[in-house]
Amino acid sequence: MAASQWVVEGTMENFQQVVVDGSRERPIVIDFWAPWCGPCRALAPLLEKLANEKAGEFLLMKINTDENPDLAQMFQVEGIPAVFAVRDGQVVNNFTGLLPEAQLRQFIDDLGTGAAAPAEPTPLDQAAELESHDRGAAGNAYRAMLATAPDDPAARVGLARVLLSAPGNEPQAIPLLSGVDFGDFATEAQRLKTIIHLREVPHADADLTAARSATTAEAKVALARILAARGDYTGAMDELLAAADDDRQLGRTAVRDLMLKVFEVIGPRSPQADDYRKRLQSRLY
Question: Known catalytic residue: 40?
Answer without folding.
Answer: yes
